[in-house]
Structure formats: structure tokens, C-alpha cells
Amino acid sequence: MSKKDEKKKQFLITPKQKLALNYMQDSTTSEILLSGSAGSAKSIIAQFWGLKMCLKYEGFRLAIVRKNITDTLNTVIKSLDEVMELQNIPASVYKFDRGTSTLKFENGSEIILINGAVLPSDRNNQLARLGSLQVSAVIYDETNQIEYFFYEIMNTRIRFIPPSMANIDYVFKSIAITNPDINSWLYSYFWQPYVKGELPDYMAVIHSTLEENPHLSEAYKKRMRNLKEPQRSRLYLGKWVGQSNQQLIEPRQLNNLFKPLNKDLFKPTHISADIARMGDDKTVYIVWSNLTVVDIITKSKQDTQQTVNDLKALLKKYNLPNHKLICDKDNIGSVVTDFIRGSVGIHNNAVPINRENYQNIKTQLYYKFAELVDDISIICDLATQEQIKKEFNAIQRIISDGDDKFKITSKKDIRASINASPDYCDALVYGLYFKLQNNVGEWYIY
């Protein structure tokens, strides 16, 4: 068998993919949900259809939306190149314009990559940053991470029919791709009406599992079968029931964190700190008594030496040794740990303790905070309470398609969402490092 024939064989579509293509190509269905477990070939069939439309019809405009534009650039272009390779289509048929995040084809067709994160200004101006954009179809990837607000307004931009399709009975297409997530708007908008048999004629749901994809390796399937719950149900079995809330900490739990306790009754045990550069974000010091926060101090626009002096003064005030101080060791934080010898520093992107299945140690600390949240108490003023709630409300649990590592919302996305860095949250989760490393902070020779 030639390599060309082998590639064609590899791209044989599954029955579910064929059904999806039928909906994408009909003249009735305008909103389609491709739902299912990780590895069930949802994205690749949508991109196959989009690529086909771009090559077949001159001037066709396809938008591909993902919440994180960096992920879009890295993931979507790679997938499109894979589809073209399997179809023996040369990569030279398009050129990528990085300035506009657009793939431009020789025949005038375009694939426009769009950042689906809702920015602070977007709600007031109804996504004015989209300008006069008009497209022929939209594919939303990892749609459970995209707000309905964005989906609804973006769909109003699907109104462009190129001259090459003037005599074709084409219905504008909006294609949403997701892993099951009962906490997203997709559950009530698509899934529940589908299960009840109440889905309108212009909408369709195609649900699949990775076991229906014959092209996956047995090693990948085995890894997905061995996932822990609730990820196994969601990413391997493709179930829409029983998933934990996508938000890292539920609103009820956040409200219960803050208690009107008398801080004078608690004996401080350790201090955690999030260190900022001068003029950049906030520096936050947190004084703990085991799992109770008894004091939160915020500093802005101060130099490193002042931060070192502050922390030394706090250690002295509460009669704590240096090894009871923990802070981030990235960037300017490393200077603090150098000046306060024996203090504990964390590199946020370091390997998780015991090599547990988290993206990095900082993510591991956030999940630890969520695990212990019902046992944690915070004593602080109302303004600080509201800021902590605001930051935690912007942080979600994330497991990407094909990746079983536990993740959280990136700092960049948090900043875009609330127009601030999660300084309080970072300082809080650092305080739980001693819960992960039981021997750290108990003794130190210096």
C-alpha cells in the first residue's frame, strides 16, 4: 500500500462523524453541538468541514473561536495542518497572517482565529472589538469555557455569503464543540432539550465517545480509562451527569470563608506572601493560625528592601522563625527569600509535590485550597472580602481535550476577566504549602 493510500485509509470517518457532516451540509440546521469524551474526534471533523468549505467556495469566511487565543494559534493550526496532510493538500494553499490571526487561502477564503474571552469592556460595548466582522460560519472550540454572552453576539456576525455561493441553498452554521459540562450554559441550551426530545429543527446534537474512534491508540485509551472521577465520567465516558462544579470554589463556600472571629484569640503559626515588583500588582502578606487567616496586609508600589523589612517585622512581631515564612520565588520573590535566610520559596511552575497529576505546584496548591475550603476561616475587612471573592470567582477547574492534568484558569485570563491579578488568592494558597510538605517549616538549620 502506498503512503498516499495509507493516509486516505487513516482518514476514514466514523458513523458519528458522518452524521455530523450531514448536519453541517444540510439546508436546515444552523446550530450544532458536537459533544463527547476527549479523543472522540469532534474538533477534527468540524475543521475538516471548514477546510473543505474554504477550498471549495472562493471567499468563504470561517471564524474559529477559543477562549485562549494562544491555545487557538497552537492547537487549531496544528489540527488544520493534520487534516490537510491526511487529505494530501499542500500547506502552501494558505498563508498565516499573524498580525490579524488569519489563515488566507489562495482563492480568497479565510479562517479567522478569534479570542473568545470576555474582556472587561466587552459587556458595555457589546463586543465592539469585533468591528464590522462578517463571517459565513463559526466553530467554537472548548465551548464550555466560552460565555453565552459571547456565543450569542458572535452568532449575529454569521451573515456573509460569498459570491461563489450565491446560487447555493446555504444555511449559516454555528458549530459548538465541548466535553460534557453540566455547569456550562450548553447543558440547558443544547443537552437538556436534546435528551427530552424538545430540540428545535434548526438545532442538532451529535454525541460520541472515544471508544467510537478507531484511530486512537490503545495506550491513549488505557490512560483515559484510568482517570479518576469525575474526570473519568466526563472525559472517558462522555457523560453529562455527575460532574463537579467547574468553578474551583462554589459561591456558598466562598461566603462561608469569612467569619466574625476575634483575631486576638489566635496564635499565629506562619506567614504567606505574594510578592510584586514595584508598581506592578499588589504585594500581599497573610498571617495564619493553622487554617485561620488572622491578618491580611496589602502593599502597593514599594521596593524590594521595604518588602523584606515588612516581612522581617512581621516575623518578629509574631515571634516566628524565618522558616515559617513562605512566598513565591519567581522574579522579585527570589530576592526576598535570599535576604530572609531560611524562608521557604515556591517556583510556581515547579513539578507538583509527589508528582501528582497537576499542571504545576501552584495549581496543586489551588486544588488543595478547594479541598480544605470548608475548614478555612478568614478574618478581614469587607473590601478585602469582596476582592477575594472576585478573584476566586474568576478561577475555574480546567481539563483540556486530550490532557488529563488538573489545571486552573490562567493568570492572563483572570486578569482579562476582572482587570486585576489574583494577588490575594495567590498569597492564600501559598499558605497551604505546609499542608502538602509536612516536614517543611517544622525545622530548618541556618
TrEMBL record:
<protein>
    <recommendedName>
        <fullName>Phage terminase large subunit N-terminal domain-containing protein</fullName>
    </recommendedName>
</protein>
<feature type="domain" description="Phage terminase large subunit N-terminal">
    <location>
        <begin position="33"/>
        <end position="231"/>
    </location>
</feature>
<dbReference type="InterPro" id="IPR027417">
    <property type="entry name" value="P-loop_NTPase"/>
</dbReference>
<dbReference type="InterPro" id="IPR035412">
    <property type="entry name" value="Terminase_L_N"/>
</dbReference>
<dbReference type="Pfam" id="PF04466">
    <property type="entry name" value="Terminase_3"/>
</dbReference>
